[in-house]
Design goal:
Layout (H helix, E strand, L loop, with lengths): L1 E3 L4 E4 L8 E5 L2 H10 L6 H9 L7 E9 L6 E8 L4 E3 L10 E10 H4 L3 H11 L14 H10 L1 H6 L5 H5 L17 H7 L12 E10 L2 H7 L5 E8 L2 H21 L11 E3 L3 H36 L7 E7 L1 E10 L2 E10 L1 E3 L18 E4 L7 E6 L1 H6 L3 E3 L8 H7 L2 H10 L3 E4 L2 H6 L8 H11 L2 E14 L1
Parallel strand pairs: 3-4, 18-19
Antiparallel strand pairs: 1-2, 2-3, 4-5, 5-13, 6-10, 7-9, 7-11, 8-9, 8-19, 12-13, 14-17, 15-16, 16-19
Length: 479
């Protein structure tokens, strides 16, 4: 049963096997969507109940305003587990490990690229490997892949793909500890030999954007952005390696669930105790996938720099990283649990880390105002830069929305829309779209997503994040 406890917070009552309540951040429109979903086999509320029933879950199972059904647990959900009594599950991470967003500050204004935006779109489309099965210029051996999995962005920067300064503005400084390449199958590594530095397909993209509106001048100045600035955002993850890790460990975690007699309410919630051999092995593999995604976005950053420099004649080093943060992760963090600071395993499934002020994990430059949160929109709509708040630390384990959230399946979108029509419509809005697949363009039609402004409004007004800037696309490159 849903109970409204504030303007934008709804509580899913604890019932049956649930160990904690569910908590949903949404307006009445979203709640109606979720209630309609319950009449089908693909329900976010049902998945949230199932998530709340897992052993060792802390405080509540959370769904943010971009929530929609996923494998086992909703996309747009957050959960935290006691390290001794809790479990680690595929469902709270997903296949695309550390899919995330990196935003680059170019030092250019909107008028600086107007005359050359067609040329810029062409070179980015040509130089950024994208699409299903795409391969990049970085070809790796098995031992080199192991180094990527251990060292993340550090390794590819050592190979000349980026600047040391980039690490400072990457979550975990581009390399999370505890990654063990031996926990990753040879098949997963083989699938990644040629894919480091590729955008991929689906909802992954590169966008050249301009800052349309500033909401908080002080924070925007600290982040280094101003109205009409040109920024470039990359949205992608660990590619085939992350998907193969998920595929491999679904089987291992299924065996572990039976071995440890864990009661699960969905076959995709297969899990293992965090401290078990199987749990630790999976966690190590996830960390390896996280590092792979950091390296992937780092190589793409290098390609963006060289492309922009060729067209606009600016120094590559003048393009700097605003921030890079992932939204499909499992991480051990300290949080306030019932008034006491405690280490827990936080799963963010389609949810971005969004730490509030004074957390040591935030780059020193941003620490007093909170972490930048990069929220992608759909093609033709807006994206946002937000900041983390102290209220978010207490209520959402320092987590935030990652995008608008789907309201239409990819299958339904392709039956309702044509990629060529979308391309023409966006061109009329002065947005250049370059896509490797018209079918993929149709799958990602703006109408297939919630209204990003409404989604951001919910979490902003509830105070778990704060708006800093609104971005609008000029060029979109899709797989």
């Amino acid at each position: 049963m849903l109970k409204q406890i504030s303007k934008y917070i709804w509580e899913l009552s604890k019932e049956n096997q649930m160990n904690v309540c569910g908590r949903i951040y949404g307006d009445e429109t979203l709640i109606k969507i979720l209630e309609e979903e319950e009449k089908t086999n693909w329900s976010s509320l049902r998945q949230l109940r199932n998530l709340a029933s897992l052993p060792g879950i802390q405080k509540y199972a959370i769904a943010l305003a971009d929530v929609h059904p996923g494998y086992g647990a909703p996309i747009g959900s957050i959960s935290a587990f006691d390290l001794e009594e809790g479990v680690i599950t595929f469902a709270t991470i997903g296949f695309d490990i550390n899919c995330g967003v990196r935003t680059l500050i170019t030092g250019l204004k909107r008028h600086d690229i107007e005359a050359k935006k067609e040329e810029l779109a062409d070179i980015l489309f040509r130089e950024i490997p994208a699409g299903l099965g795409s391969t990049g210029e970085l070809k790796l051996t098995k031992s080199q892949i192991d180094e990527v999995l251990e060292k993340g962005s550090e390794y590819v920067i050592e190979q000349g793909f980026g600047l040391e300064e980039d690490l400072k503005y990457t979550e975990e400084k581009g390399c999370i500890k505890g990654a063990d390449p031996k926990a990753v199958s040879d098949k997963a590594k083989e699938r990644q030999f040629k894919q480091v530095g590729t955008l991929g397909s689906g909802n992954h993209y590169l966008e050249v954007q301009f800052v349309e509106q500033i909401y908080n001048e002080e924070v925007a100045e600290i982040f280094g952005i101003d109205k009409d600035d040109i920024v470039i955002s990359l949205h992608c993850g660990s590619r085939a390696l992350g998907h193969q890790i998920g595929t491999d460990y679904l089987q291992e975690l299924e065996r572990a669930s039976k071995k440890y007699n864990l009661k699960i309410l969905d076959k995709e919630l297969v899990c293992a105790p965090i401290q078990s051999e199987e749990g630790q092995k999976y966690f190590s593999a996830v960390n390896a996938g996280i590092n792979c995604a950091f390296a992937n976005r780092q190589v793409l950053t290098h390609l963006v720099r060289t492309s922009v420099s060729k067209v606009l004649g600016i120094d590559e080093k003048s393009i700097r990283v605003l921030y890079d943060v992932g939204h499909n992760t499992a991480k051990i963090e300290k949080h306030d649990i019932n008034g006491k600071m405690k280490e827990v395993l936080v799963g963010r499934k389609g949810s971005t880390r969004g730490f509030g002020p004074n957390r040591e994990e935030i780059p020193e430059k941003y620490r007093k105002v909170g972490q930048p949160i990069l929220v992608g929109g759909s093609m033709g709509t807006a994206s946002y830069i937000l900041r983390g708040t102290n209220k978010g630390m207490l209520e959402t384990f320092g987590s935030a929305i990652h995008g608008a959230g789907r309201v239409m399946s990819r299958v339904k979108a392709t039956s309702n829309f044509r990629g060529s029509d979308i391309e023409k419509t966006l061109r009329k809005q002065n947005i250049i779209v370059k896509a490797h697949s018209l079918k993929g363009l149709a799958e990602e039609a703006p109408e297939a997503y919630k209204n990003i402004d409404d989604v951001v409004k919910i979490v902003h007004e509830e105070g778990v994040v704060e708006k800093v800037a609104r971005l609008r696309p000029i060029i979109v490159v899709k797989g």
